[in-house]
Write a structure and sequence with these properties.
This protein is mostly helical. The protein contains 14 helices and four strands. The protein has two domains: 132 residues, Peroxidase, domain 1, CATH 1.10.520.10; 122 residues, Orthogonal Bundle (Peroxidase, domain 2), CATH 1.10.420.10. Keywords: Calcium, Disulfide bond, Heme, Hydrogen peroxide, Iron, Metal-binding, Oxidoreductase, Peroxidase, Secreted, Signal.
Length: 337
Amino acid sequence: MARQVFDVSPVLVMWVLLLNLCLFFPNKASSAQLRQNYYANTCPNVEKIVRGVVTQKFQQTFVTVPGTLRLFFHDCFVQGCDASVMIASTSSNTAEKDNPINLSLAGDGFDTVIKAKAAVDATSGCTNKVSCADILAMAARDVVALAGGPSFAVELGRLDGLSSTSSSVNGNLPLPTFDLDKLTSMFASHGLSQNDMIALSGAHSVGFSHCNQFANRIYSYSTKSQVDPSINKSYVGQLQSMCPKNVDPRIAINMDPNTPRTFDNMYYKNLQQGEGLFTSDQVLYTDTRSRPTVNLWASNPTSFNNAFAAAMINLGRVGVKTGSQGNIRRDCSVFNS
């Protein structure tokens, strides 16, 4: 039987190659649509509008800073930066925000995004043009700058996700007990480097935690010692006075005992003094593989600011939704009907 000969055009070959690239590098393909000034033609003043709302919220309460920043992180690490963490649970679905690990997310973060979305949609020409995911990314950038940290050009073009389940959170967020290997591995699974991880950990320069998240380090660390030996003894005394054994675990403690209302490089200086609140904080200094980076950023705030800005941009590229994978929600807390 005669062999059939097919004429394969160069254009077809090119499309096959592009398809293969998308299959093998999904994150790079999906983040390709992100760019600065994405809304230049549809809602040119969007960044100014969002910044105005964030500034007003910041003036009302400092909790806006850590609340919004942590919301962005928890969103991006679960199903990507798609505002799925904003979705409210229903009788038929328990959403991400109601997973136990997310119950401590400050309401001010959610409120900031909701108010910014309302302000954007109330602007002529901008209604239903800007995603909740992009508003969250802008707000996270803005709160850092308002608290004294670096500002940077944020990439935009994300769509809002179409799914939000409590089960999707499990195993996708770092825990306070993680060592360096677990931290590095988890961040790598989201396409982020160890340097990105150490830089993003610097967000603990602001914010707070609850006593039950670190009580094991100051009371029952091991059978041989009541206190984690990597903690500064004076710091242990401070923590025990604020968090006695039978204290309400919901009491909030500043992550940074020295400059808790300023986004700066004090976090790394604290680690040098044994004042990291979580195991996952202090290990960045006790582990000799990450210690040089901690020492560098403790002595060079400009270097830290640059690294943090770069890490935030990389974080904002995680799991970006495009095309039929998402849409622009009319209400950030509810899927479009």
